[in-house]
Design a protein that fits this description.
This protein has 216 residues and is of the alpha/beta class. 49% of the residues lie in helices and 12% in strands.
Length: 216
């Protein structure tokens, strides 16, 4: 094989490598997102018609934005951070999510569980998801003033602390523009705890600005 033949082979190999690299990049870009939501009744459509909760609206939003994504709603009404922590490993192993939204903590407060326990569980969930290669969005909730000023502030700050310590994204308050209105009754179900269908779009509007950058 003379020098001209070698030059042809080298040129052909370079072209093949470039094509392969381009194909790999295109495949990676086209790879769909798997987004898992690990939450409680606020995300599990408690008291709502199926397909009307904010997670279902998120699926429609992703489609409208032409973002290829599979949404796995692994939310359970009444769940605590301990429950979410215990079932997250199976979810990570079976669904292999690229993104995990953690919306838990409200039921911890209702049950009077120690803030330290809740924070430890949120931290463990965040780190486990990140270790599995997922980007994490922590969705915070706030408790009513009747819990006491100190507890209310500490509870709200807990979500921010976990997100900051683990470089996760954060939604400070899922029910902003819903529960903090002067007259919030029209946006809640008869139990005055769970938002109704009218509130779901606002809940998604609170989540989307923090989630969208993670999808790029």
């Amino acid at each position: 094989m003379d020098a001209r033949d070698l030059e042809k082979v080298n040129r052909r190999d370079c072209i093949a490598l470039l094509l392969a690299a381009g194909y790999s990049a295109a495949s990676a870009a086209a790879a769909p997102i798997t987004l898992a939501v690990v939450g409680d009744s606020l995300s599990a459509e408690y008291g709502l018609a199926r397909g009307t909760g904010w997670v279902a609206l998120l699926e429609k939003k992703l489609a409208a934005e032409k973002i290829a994504a599979k949404v796995v709603n692994a939310s359970i009404s009444g769940d605590t951070t301990s429950g979410g922590r215990s079932r997250l490993p199976t979810l990570l192993a079976t669904q292999k999510p690229t993104h995990v939204i953690v919306e838990l903590g409200g039921n911890d407060a209702l049950r009077g569980l120690p803030l330290s326990m809740t924070q430890d569980n949120l931290t463990a969930m965040t780190q486990a998801a990140q270790k599995a290669g997922a980007k994490v969005l922590i969705v915070g909730i706030q408790v009513p003033p009747n819990y006491g000023g100190d507890y209310t502030r500490q509870f709200a700050a807990m979500f921010e602390a976990v997100a900051k310590a683990n470089q996760a994204a954060l939604v400070p308050f899922l029910l902003k523009g819903v529960a903090d209105l002067a007259d919030a009754a029209p946006l809640f179900q008869a139990d005055r705890i769970h938002p109704n269908e009218k509130a779901q779009a606002q809940m998604l509007a609170n989540v989307w600005p923090a989630l969208k950058p993670l999808l790029k």
